[in-house]
Amino acid sequence: MLDPKGRVVMVSGASRGIGRAIAEELLALGCEVSAGVRDPGHAPTGCFASRYDAVENASASAWVDATLSRFGRIDAVVNAAGILAPGSFLHGELADIEAMWRVNTMGPLVLVRAAWNALAAGGTGRVLTVASLSGKRVGNDNAGYQMSKFAAVALTHSIRKQGWAQGIRATALCPGYVATDMTTKATFPREDMTDAADLAALACTAMHMPNNASVAELPVNCRAEDML
After folding, report:
1. Topology of the domain covering 8-220
2. Measured between alpha carbons, how far is 144 from 141 in angstroms, rounded to an integer?
3. Are 164 and 121 in contact (CB under 8 A)?
4. What SS3 class is residue 211?
5. If pLDDT is split at 50, 70 and 90, which confidence band does 33 have?
6. Is the predicted pLDDT of residue 228 greater than 70, yes or no?
7. CB of 112 within 8 A of CB of 77?
8. Residue 158 belongs to what H/E stretch?
9. Annotated domain spans of the chain
10. Which domain of life is it from (predicted)?
11. DSSP code of 9?
12. pTM (2 decimals)?
């Protein structure tokens, strides 16, 4: 296992939900966390907070620069910023589908590109992207979200292949229902959903596996179903 103490990790979407839980777990492990959030005042206590909006390419580069200026290096990037706008293939609003594509898929691509050289410099760079089981199977009529998450999983594999020789390892975290604000309208019982803190513990373990024990995909479910 890699020693998490002192490793510098950028976490997008760190103000709430899965992103916040991962940021808090990283802090507890002794990492230096750079939180990318639209409102830096909402970042978890103990993080270095920087303004970041996944729809603004320039904010990715600015956040990377600010992190390097503060810590001098970047060891990992967690792409946890994401949105969900329900809508079927036939009736979903095109603007909503484009927005999910921009945040859930293009946002991670732009951010990891911006941090690439720093990730490669240390020889143990890590990229963890919060995808979804909706990126592994089509379980309901929510086409735009599923498209963006399938693409996020594919992006993860592209990052793995591109960065393998430089020590960069990438993981697609693929949870089912997680008890966050994104699932408040779900009909599945909330008390049976995966707790965000438990998911964060799994994610952080995957991120700190050595180069020769890479976790490409991490599906996590709270119910019995065919996931793959």
Report:
1. Rossmann fold (3.40.50)
2. 9
3. no
4. coil
5. very high
6. no
7. yes
8. helix 143-163
9. 8-220
10. Bacteria
11. E
12. 0.94
What's the CA gap between 195 and 67, in Å, rounded? 29
- The pairing of strands 126-130 and 8-12 is unpaired
- Asked if 47 and 8 touch (Cβ cutoff 8 Å), the reply is no
Q: Which helix (H) or strand (E) holds 76?
A: strand 76-79
The answer to whether residue 222 scores a pLDDT higher than 80 is: no
Name the 3-class secondary structure at 5.
coil
Mean of pLDDT values over 69-75: 99
Kindly report, residue by residue over 60-71, the tens digit of the pLDDT: 999 999 999 999
Tokens 């793959």 found at:
228
Q: Distance between the two ends of the chain, CA-based, in angstroms?
A: 27
Please give the structure tokens belonging to residue 223. Answer: 């119910």
Q: Which residues contact 178 (CB under 8 A, 6 or more apart)?
A: 17, 18, 193, 194, 195, 196, 199
Per-residue pLDDT, averaged over 159-164, amounts to: 98
Number of Cβ within a 10 Å radius of residue 109: 18
Residue entry with tokens 């206590």 = 45
The torsion angle over the Cα atoms of residues 181, 206, 101 and 39, rounded to 10 degrees, is 50
Catalytic residues: 145
